[in-house]
Write a structure and sequence with these properties.
4-stranded antiparallel sheet, alpha+beta
């Protein structure tokens, strides 16, 4: 049985070096409130270290756009926010997903090749 949730990612990109965005971290949220709180907590945490423009942008997102953000997530629409600090763009994305249950291995036999693996010794 699948369960609905959100896949959240944080991407960074160095704009001076014209690099492709790189995945910095990800998080699996079980609901819209949890996904929204993940982004909001990070923005609150890093805002003191941001330059003035980026800090203002972060706080606008946290307060002025919070209702729009929550509505989008409750409608299960993808959502993203980006801020630019000096030459680094940070982007958070939140996408609705269906999580699949993981199968457990209790009571089942592993294939014979599983026992052929020998860990490396230092």
């Amino acid at each position: 049985m699948t369960s609905p949730g959100f896949w959240c990612e944080c991407w960074t990109q160095n704009l001076d070096e014209q690099q492709a965005p790189a995945l910095f971290g990800s998080y699996d949220a079980r609901g819209a409130v949890e996904a929204n709180n993940w982004v909001a907590t990070i923005l609150r945490t890093i805002s003191p270290a941001l330059d003035t423009a980026a800090c203002t942008e972060a706080w606008e997102r946290l307060y002025d756009h919070r209702i729009d953000t929550r509505r989008a997530l409750l409608r299960r629409e993808p959502w993203s926010v980006s801020i630019t600090h000096i030459s680094t763009r940070i982007t958070w994305t939140v996408r609705p997903v269906l999580f699949l249950p993981l199968a457990h291995r209790q009571g089942s036999e592993l294939p014979m090749c599983a026992y052929d693996f020998k860990p490396l010794t230092p």
